[in-house]
Fold these 2 entries.
Entry 1:
Amino acid sequence: MTKEEYYDTNYELDEIEVDPRFVICEKEMKLVFSIQLAFTTVMITLGYFLGRGDPKDYTYILGMPTWWFVSIVTSFIFFGIIVYVVKFKFQDMSLDDTIESTEG
């Protein structure tokens, strides 16, 4: 491919072939965004409902207020979810410019 062909913008958008790696990346991005949104929602909810009220009335677990202890446990649970997703759901893919065809 020449440099002029590479930078040529005389084409229709329908002619562009979608790279299958982009589709996979979009699915993985949506999965990660969903997990982050769930984590944020759970943490804010736990912090708000377990941490409200007079601090004199707090209950403590291992010397920490309950809302803080539950937040730490929840963080470890979500960390486990992230490790599972990265290890078993994400796909390794080539970052080369060309697409390697698996069809023979």
Note: The two ends are 24 Å apart (CA to CA).
Entry 2:
Amino acid sequence: MKTAVACFAFVLGCLHAADYVPIAGGTLRTALPMDGETVPVAAYQLRSKPVTNAEFLRFVLANPEWQRGKAATLYATSAYLSQWHSASDFAPHAPNAPVTNVSWFAASAYCASEGASLPSWTQWEFAAAADASRKDARNDPAWRAQILGWYEKPSVERLPDVGLHPANIYGVYDLHQLIWEWVDDFNGLFVTVDSRAQGEQKVFETCGAASLSLGDKENYAVLMRIALLAALNGQDSVGSLGFRCAKPAQ
């Protein structure tokens, strides 16, 4: 009971608007060849940090249809928020840690509550290409190695708070080194040896040969994210998968 009260008190204490940062957009050298080697990305706003446990608890308290045990099975599996102590208590996880085990449907509903949506893949990829001083650091082997180092670390039972790593040049935190993230068009990220593939297409989605179809074959970190998202259904939940939201440019 004490932890539940503490969680609720924290939620009441963090009633403030989420921070969205403007991103001017531009031309993106995308990893997905079906979109062409480069794609235009219009200006947009992106949440500076992933959605946290406390923020998502506030959402489910206001929208009980998204509470664990009440969400329709069509929109969330039994793994939905299964790491929380109860439907209204995120203990033993920290309030400022990113919420995970959230389905795409629930993440989309949360973003809609902020007047936003999940970012598209190209919006996420555009922002994630940057480091603290460059808008596109992807050709830097040291930067890629730093990101890959995160994948080599064993997963932890309790995630750290958001915002502990330095922000990138846009002021966006944690696009790498903390969690995977849902994107709005995740079910369009077909990574196959042949983009015309039909039927058993998903069999190839996580196949190593699929990497040959990517536009940036050396960016293994991006390949892993695409392969994970392409293998999911909208009602799935993963313990290392969270989300952030995006809005049109003002």
Note: The radius of gyration is 18 Å.
